Amino acid sequence: MYKMVEFIYVKIMSINNKKNSVVSAISGFTLIEMLVVIAIIGILSAAVLVALGPSRNKAKDSRIVSDLQQARAIAETLYNPASASPYGSINLTTGQLKTIADDILTQNSTLQVNPASPSTAYAFYAFLSDGTTYYCVDSSGNVFTTIKVPASGVCQN
């Protein structure tokens, strides 16, 4: 009886040892495998970031266009036809126009206004993301993407 118990015990122990050696041999990844996976993830994320660049610029340009259209709407609410200078109260340092100017500044551009003397017309303009083109809106309803700076309160195409 003792011999039989000892035999069963030895068999169970040898089975457990085999299981442990098999499990430890296949559990986990090697350092090389982990480094390869990290390198692949890095390459894929770099490709995604490069692909998103133009989309970001388009989004910034869209925001600038929207802000300029809002600025034109605000300027039209300030319009006073009875005054000698109907657009004389356009001021980029206070009120809603300052908020719009600040928002355009966060898009890496600057809101600029070109009033004609004596402020009978205006043109708002700001650089787009390419750094060479302006988006321009003016009091006569013109809307242009141009490389020319507005003159006398009128966008030039």
UniProtKB/TrEMBL annotation:
Membrane topology value: Single-pass membrane protein
Gene3D superfamilies with a match to the protein in the record: Glycoprotein, Type 4 Pilin
A single GO cellular-component term on record: type II protein secretion system complex
Main location, first listed in the record: membrane
InterPro entries according to UniProt: N_methyl_site (IPR012902), Pilin-like (IPR045584), T2SS_protein-GspH (IPR002416)
Membrane-spanning parts: 21-52
Name listed for the protein in its UniProt record: Uncharacterized protein
